[in-house]
C-alpha cells in the first residue's frame, strides 16, 4: 500500500504543473467577460478577456485556442486554478527582449501611458519607460498621435531583477534618417540646381529641406545685395530654387546658395560706375568708420568717415546721414577683385575753403562769432560752416596778445581782415588789429635810421631815461645820454624836457625805435669837422664848433 501511494504521488507530481511557471492551456468556454481555460490535470482557471487584447485593439481569443498562462496558484477557495495571461506574456516578453537586447535588435511596442519624465511602452507584455528626450529627434509638444501606435523601439537598458526597461524611439529615427541622408547626399553634387522647402529661419540663414536632408542657405548667399535678416526674402514653407555650393561627405553638411543662380552685378561695375562719376544711392548701414551706400541691388560702396564732410571732422557718421536716406556720392575707387567701392559724399559739394577764397580774397573784411578760445588765439566762425583763426599777435597793435585775448569771450562777434587762405591745408588766417591803422607805422612814417627827431622825457630812471615820440615810448640807456662820460647822468634831465636824439634803429617787428643823444652829438661833431676844418689844422674843437654855430646863425 505504501508503495502504491508513492507511485500515485509521483504521478501527481509529474502531471501537476508547478506554481510560478508558464503552462499551456486550452480555451474551453467564454462567459461573463472571461475565458475559462483548461490547464490540464482537471484544473481550470479564469482570465479576463482584456488580458488577451493588444494596446489599442479588441481582445482576440476563441474557444479551442491554445494559450500560455502563468500559474499563480494550483487551487483557490473555489477550487479553481489562479492563472494570468498578462504575467505569462510578461515572462515570455522578457525572454524575447533579453535576446533582442543582446543582439542590439529593434523591438516592437506601443506607447500607452504618460508618466513623469516620459511615457510607458507595452513591448508585447513587458512595460518599458520611454524618456521624453528619446521620443523624437526634436522636442515633441503633443504625443497624442503616437499613443497606441505600434512602432519599433531600441532597448537602451534593461534589468530583469528590478523589472526596469528603458527604450528609445529617437535612436530608430536617427538611424533611418542617417540612411536617408546618405542616400540623398549620394545623389547630390556641387553646382547642382535643386528645389527645396524652407524648413527653419535663423538670424544667420535658413535651413532648406532637400527631400530628407537639410542644407544651410547662409544669409550672405541669399542675394547679391545686403540682407539684414533672412525673413526679408524667405518664409517658412516656401519652395525655392537653390544651388549646391559645397557638400561635406563626412559631416553630411550641405551649403546652399540662391544668389549663385542670378547674374553677378560685379561683372559690370567698372563700366557702370567709372572713377569720378556721381550717383544717387541709399544708405543701408552705418558704422563707426563710415556708411554703406547701395548703388544698386548687390553693389554697395563705403563712404569712409573722412570722406563724409568737409567741415565735420570728428563726428559719428550717424550725425551726418541716416539709414535709408538717399544721398549723392562720387566714385573714388573700385577694386573688382576685392569687390569694394570707395565713395565720397563731400566730393559732390564744393570745397568750402575754395568758395570762401573766391568770396573773401586776402584783404577782405569778415565778421563772425568766436567759437573757441585757445592759448594761441581765437577761432571765428565764417560763412560755409568753416573757422578762421586770429593769432595772438593779430589781436592788438599795442597790447600783448596774452593780455588782449582776455577781452574776448565765446559768442562774441568780431570783425577781422582776411590775411591768408590756404585751401590745401584748410586754414584761414585773420587779423583783428588790421581793421585799424597801425599807430606805429603812422608815427614813424617819416622816421628813418640816422635821422634826428625831438622827443619828450617821460620818466627818469637810474639806467637811463624814458622818452616819447608821437605816442610811442622808447628808452635811452645811460651810456647813450652823452658823448661826455661826465654828462651821462639821467638826473640832469627833467620830465617834460624836449631833447633832440639820433635814430640808430627802426625795428618794425618789435615796434621799437633805438635812440641816442650820444650818437647825435658824435654825428654833429663829425659834420662840423668836415665842414669847417680838421683837427690837424691846429684849430681847436671849440673853435670849429664855434665857427659852426656862427655859420648856423648866419644861415
TrEMBL record:
One of its GO terms (cellular component) is cytosolic small ribosomal subunit. The keyword Repeat applies. Pfam families: S1. Residues 20-86, 104-170, 191-259, 276-346, 363-433, 450-518 form the S1 motif domain. InterPro entries: NA-bd_OB-fold (IPR012340), Ribos_protein_bS1-like (IPR050437), Ribosomal_bS1 (IPR000110), Ribosomal_protein_S1-like (IPR035104), S1_domain (IPR003029). The keyword Repeat applies. It comes from the Bacteria. One of its GO terms (molecular function) is structural constituent of ribosome. GO terms for biological process: translation. Keywords: Repeat, Ribonucleoprotein, Ribosomal protein, RNA-binding. Belongs to the bacterial ribosomal protein bS1 family. Binds mRNA; thus facilitating recognition of the initiation point. It is needed to translate mRNA with a short Shine-Dalgarno (SD) purine-rich sequence. PANTHER family: 30S RIBOSOMAL PROTEIN S1, SMALL RIBOSOMAL SUBUNIT PROTEIN BS1C. This is 30S ribosomal protein S1. It comes from Rubellimicrobium rubrum. The lineage of its organism: Bacteria, Pseudomonadati, Pseudomonadota, Alphaproteobacteria, Rhodobacterales.
